[in-house]
Specification:
Layout lengths: L4 H26 L4 E7 L5 E6 L6 H5 L2 E4 L13 E6 L5 E2 L7 E9 L11 H15 L4 E13 L1 E6 L4 E6 L36 H13 L4 E6 L6 E6 L2 E2 H21 L3 E3 L13 E9 L2 E2 L12 H12 L1 H8 L5 H4 L9 E6 L4 E5 L11 E3 L8 H17 L17 H5 L8 H10 L2 H4 L6 H20 L4 H7 L3
């Protein structure tokens, strides 16, 4: 009897799942688990959870799932179709390092109990389909992802809005605006200036210990970290770099990364945010996404004779990213605040070109090492408010479209794009100037996302409609405090 590759792959998956399942029950016993936390991600990237006692976790939970109300989750179901199932993935199990009680965390997929199908608007399902589509194209068997999700750690954040008032106040002991503070405590100085926070040693970098605690927690749950450091902005901007991993696994890890950072900060009496532009006049938070394709254990983006040692495949992939960037940003820069960051002058990649080593280009080719395994593309437009499952999937689909159609990215621009003459800069394509523009671009350019059923029309329609109502219209219809400064005495 002939054994097909599909059978071999399915058998391998089943063996891996059986081993993972056995490990789950071993962890429950060994770690004396008191709570099992079932976690999943809503359409817009928020981590959600449901907790059950360990005795409720049995084989049926993994086969059939655990029920929940899908109508109460953003972007999921209407009230008349609310019953949904969470199906834990045993391969994602870890003992939570920040909870007081011994807690076993499991990431879940979402299933419709009536049809028995996986739920089309479950972001993790979209990412799994993207990985499968990559294999089906025959172009590669795996894509690797290395996101650099920047964040701020503040000491205090206050904000409020109602019919007659609107305000926010950020404070950070590290903020340069506190350099003249005369209060109850001594003022010890050592604060990064605006745009002066890149790589100063402690005591100016006041968050070394906090980041190390986050790294310790990440390592405890099996997430590899390459480095951590203070970032450019004052007031506690940080970055922790994750080791590259396949698409779904990396999106899983990024959700846990954000969860651990927020909880470690809270434990230390601080607050962490991944908001792209919380501070006026200083750098915002991006999520530069390093990506590459591999086949049979070999990198496909390397060519010793190519520009920046890029293969023709890599150039076509880059062309796909650039061609579809306006639509991609509806997922990769999905908030109105994202476009406060995407402005010139703050290392923000607003120019849709590619270049080696150049941080003013939307697609950068890192040149740290000449090794083939290090060859990758860095797409610099995304920010960490993106739902990683959807953003990674959308970028992969754009790159594959570039490969399949043989798109040409044009000539690289190895110059500081911010220093170009106005007439030269005018000829360079730019990122959208607002979320509204990005959503309109997604409406006009979405066919590449629908291939292989990776994204669906209902997901795209829900995303666009919800973002227009709850983000764009909500911000556009409210007076801005700065408008009073500009216009009150008109």
């Amino acid at each position: 009897m002939m054994v097909t590759m599909a059978h071999v792959t399915r058998a391998a998956r089943e063996r891996r799942a059986a081993v993972a399942l056995a490990r789950v029950f071993e962890l429950v016993e060994r770690e004396r688990v008191e709570v099992v936390d079932l976690r999943f991600t809503d359409l817009f990237g928020q981590l959600q959870h449901l907790s059950i006692p360990p005795e409720e976790l049995d084989g049926n939970a993994f086969r059939k799932g655990v029920g929940f109300d899908g109508s109460s989750i953003r972007g999921f179901q209407e009230i008349h179709e609310s019953d949904m199932l969470l199906v834990p993935d045993p391969e994602t199990a870890f003992v939570d390092p920040v909870t007081e009680e011994a807690t076993l965390a499991l990431l879940c997929d979402v299933r419709d109990p009536v049809t028995g199908e996986w739920f089309s608007r479950d972001p993790r399902y979209v990412a799994r389909k993207a990985e499968q589509y990559l294999v089906e194209t025959g172009i590669a068997e795996v894509s690797y992802w290395g996101p650099e999700a920047e964040f701020f750690v503040f000491d205090s954040i206050r904000f409020q809005i109602d019919e007659r008032s609107s305000s926010y106040v950020i404070d950070s002991e590290e903020g340069i605006w506190n350099s003249g503070l005369d209060g109850e405590r001594p003022n010890l100085g050592y604060r990064p200036q605006f745009k002066g926070g890149y790589f100063p040693a402690p005591p100016t970098d006041s968050l070394q210990s906090l980041r190390t605690e986050v790294v310790r927690a990440l390592r405890q749950v099996g997430i590899r970290v390459e480095a951590h450091h203070h970032e450019v902005a004052t007031a506690g901007q940080c970055e922790i770099d994750l080791r590259y991993a396949p698409l779904v696994k990396q999106a899983d890890q990024l959700q846990t990364y954000k969860y651990l950072i927020k909880n470690v900060a809270r434990r230390r009496g601080k607050t962490a945010t991944f908001m792209p532009k919380p501070l006026f006049g200083d750098n915002g938070c991006g999520m530069h996404c390093h990506q590459s394709l591999w086949q049979d254990g070999q990198p496909l983006f390397y060519d010793s004779e190519g520009y920046a040692q890029l293969s023709p495949m890599a150039l076509h992939y880059a062309a796909g990213l650039l061609a579809h960037s306006p639509a991609l940003l509806a997922f990769c820069a999905p908030t109105t605040n994202s476009y406060r960051r995407l402005i010139p002058g703050f290392e923000a990649p607003v120019n849709l070109v590619y270049s080696q080593r150049n941080r003013s280009a939307a697609v950068r080719v890192p040149m740290y090492f000449p090794d083939p395994v290090a060859k990758r593309l860095e797409y610099r437009c995304p920010d960490p408010t993106a739902n990683a499952y959807l953003a990674f999937s959308a970028m992969l689909m754009a790159g594959l479209d570039g490969i399949e159609r043989g798109l040409d990215p044009g000539a690289p621009m190895d110059v500081d794009l911010y220093e170009l003459a106005p007439e030269e800069l005018a000829a360079v394509r730019k990122t959208p100037g607002s979320l509204e523009e990005a959503l309109a671009a997604l409406e006009d350019d979405r066919e590449f996302l629908l291939r292989g059923g990776v994204f669906t029309e209902d997901l795209l329609a829900t995303w666009i409609a919800t973002k227009r109502e709850h983000d764009v219209a909500a911000v556009r219809t409210r007076p801005h405090p700065y408008e009073f400064f500009l216009y009150y005495d008109a």
